[in-house]
Amino acid sequence: MSRSYARNVNTASLITLCPVCLHSFQDARRATLRRADLRQRSKDTCTYCQIRYGFDYYVQPATYRNQTRSEAKAYASAAQD
Predict the structure, then answer these.
(1) Alpha helix (H) ranges present in 1-81?
(2) What digits encode the pLDDT tens for the residues 55-78?
(3) Rounded Cα–Cα distance for residues 55 and 38 (Å)
(4) CA distance 15 to 41
(5) In whole angstroms, what is the distance from residue 79 CA to residue 73 CA?
(6) Which of 40, 73, 75, 33 minimizes the C-alpha distance to 55?
(7) In contact, 54 and 19? CB cutoff 8 Å
(8) Distance CA 75, CA 56 (A)
(9) What is the residue-averaged pLDDT of the chain?
(10) 13: helix, coil or strand?
């Protein structure tokens, strides 16, 4: 693998999220969120609720492998007690 690896942004979706929908995504922990432009000043209509205004975010699905590893560790530590 090359050391000049760049992030693959193509796997991420660019959506607009208001603060309420943003918290819903963060609580679900099924996706990784990243602000598209930290200096964005103007807000757009939210992609999900289409009522409130918010900023643009890149949303990538969380890797399934990482979730099962943490669950497996939690199960193993609980089983040993």
Answers:
(1) 19-28, 64-80
(2) 999 988 876 554 455 554 544 445
(3) 9
(4) 16
(5) 10
(6) 40
(7) yes
(8) 37
(9) 76
(10) strand
